[in-house]
Amino acid sequence: MGKNNVYCEPFCIQHGYDFEIHHVVYSEDSPYSCFMHFHEVHELIVFDSIEGTFFYSQGKSALCDQDLVFTPALETHDFELSSRNKSWYIIQFLPAILLAPGLEQAEDFFKYGMHLRLKPEDASAIQTLSKWLLDSYRESPSGNRSQALLRALLTWVAERATPLKPPHYDTLLKSSGYVKLEPVINLFRHNKSVELSLEQAAELCCVSPAYFSRLFKSVFRCNYSDYNVKHRLYSAARMLSQSQFSITEISYELNFSSPSHFISQFKKLFGVTPKKFKTTMLQRVAEP
Question: HTH araC/xylS-type domain: from which residue to which, for each copy (predicted)?
C-alpha cells in the first residue's frame, strides 16, 4: 500500500468458514495507525515482535515480544505501536467455536478482553502452533487438521497464559465516562455506519454537546466526527476484503454522498484507492 497506509485487520471470515488466520509483518518505520474499533467475531493476536500499547476494556498495557491479546466480539480495542519491526498472527473466529466439546475451559477463559503473557517455553509452542495453523488454513480452512490445530491453540492459551494484573495496566475504559457513552458506542458496535450528528449523539447520551465532545475524545483519543468517518472507512476496508462487494455498492451502503467521495475519503486515510486496497488484501489472503 502507499506510504500513508494504515492497518486495521480488515479481514472478514468467509462464508462457510468458522475462523481465519493471517500473518502480518511491518518492517522498521513502515507506517502504522489504528483506532478504537470493534469486530463481530472473537480475535486472538499472537505477537512475534512488538512494542507499543494495547488499549482495551480493562484499560491499557505495554506490549512486549511474544505477548498475546484477546478481544471478544463487539468489544472496543486499539493499538499504538512504535516504529520498530513488528509482526503477528491474527486469528479471528466465531464465538460458537468455543461451544465445541472439549473446549469448556477455553469457553470459560475467553470471556473478556485480555493482555496475556506466557512462559518462554509456552510462547515458543504457541508460535509454532500458529505457524502450523496458518499453513493448514491455507491448504484447507475447514479441514479436520485446521480445526484440531485451532482447538489445540485455544486450549493451550486457556491453560497456560496469564492475564496481566495491576500494576501492569491502568484502568481506563471502565470509567463512568465510558459508561455515559455506551448508547452511542453500542450504535457503532452494531452498525457499519452511524448517521448521528454530534448534537444528536450527545442527546442520546443525555449530556451537552460540549461535554460529550470532551468525553468522547478522552476515551477514544479522537474527536467524534473524525471517529465517525474512520468507522465507516474501516467498515469499508473489511467489506473490500470480501470480493462480492463492489466499490459503488460499498459507497452507498455506508452512506457516502457518491462513489467518488468515498474513493477520495478512503485514499486520504489509507493512502491508496479502494480498488488498490481490495487487490492488495485479496493477494495477501491468497499468498502461500
Answer: 182-280
